[in-house]
Amino acid sequence: MYDAFQLGPFTIQYFILVSVLTFLFTYFILDAFSKDHHLNVFLKKHYWTFVFLLFISYKFSVVLFRPELLLTTNWFFLTGGIRGVYVGLFLILIYLVWIVWVKNESLKNVLLSITVITCLFAVLFQLNKIVILSLVQEVLQI
Fold first, then answer.
1. CA 64 – CA 74 distance, rounded (Å)
2. Got the DSSP string for 72-123?
3. What is the pLDDT of residues 32-45, one digit of tens each?
4. Where are the domains of the chain?
5. Membrane-spanning residues where (predicted)?
6. What SS3 class is residue 48?
7. Is 70 exceeded by the pLDDT of residue 133?
């Protein structure tokens, strides 16, 4: 899954491609199928904040876990790996607690949105991974 392809001067990992497509598909599917007005407003308001927190923690948590790499290699290409994703999920949880506490958002909306986003993202990620990797395999066999 961590193979990559070359697009001009850029090397793009399949994992990043699958993740970006999954985030976009998740947003559009949630927007199209959420009937509850309050849930739809909550998701539109906070979804990209969740994605941003996850991306920033994935990319820059290497500072927490392996700071010595910042002095030895080009830090632009470093990632925090799976531990960075866990830090991002923890930051999202803190953000959600803050939303419920400070902004008086409904706990029902928060829990429902977490459940819906997580389930939909997991299913779409696996489907995107199957489709993209099977297309890559077909192209490489030709």
1. 16
2. HS-GGG---HHHHHHHHHHHHHHHHHHHHHHS---HHHHHHHHHHHHHHHHH
3. 887 777 777 778 88
4. 15-35+42-141
5. 12-34, 46-65, 85-102, 109-127
6. helix
7. yes
